[in-house]
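Hey, quick one: can you model this chain's 3D structure?
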Amino acid sequence: EGLDTMLNVMSIKTEMDLRASSHGALGIDPLGKSVLHKYYSAPQYEEILTEPGKAAIRTIFADLANKENYPIYLHCTYGLDRTGTICYLLEALLGADEADLVRDYELSALYLDYASGTPLEPMIAALKKTYEGNDITEKVENFLLSAGVTAEEIASIREIFLGA
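Sure thing. Here's the predicted structure for all 164 residues.
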């Protein structure tokens, strides 16, 4: 039923699998051949700030900027580390409130105790320290630009999600 819903109700066109080859059964496309299945070996947390991390971010955000790829199913193994990092960047770029960004991440794994902080916090601190901007939206936009995501791609992502 889930497969039928994804294919025939949601009409998923692209599966963005953020896992590395060591984290999943690569080559298995459960959504079938009609769905474009892409692997990214996405970075998580502070790994986004490395050159390989930036290269992966550039590719991921280029695909998020392509209207032809939608609707997209974006995931990793558990939807927390790699997916949480990418969704944090995406939602920050779209103007989500800082507290809501962290809360959304925390809701990904209610079974974890975040009393001493989340794994996102060192990444957020590094973004705030390293990139110019008045708020997290501007800092993430400047990070993405430094990673090679173009201003046109950022505008396209905002148009797709916000109609702006």
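One thing worth noting: The mean pLDDT is 92.
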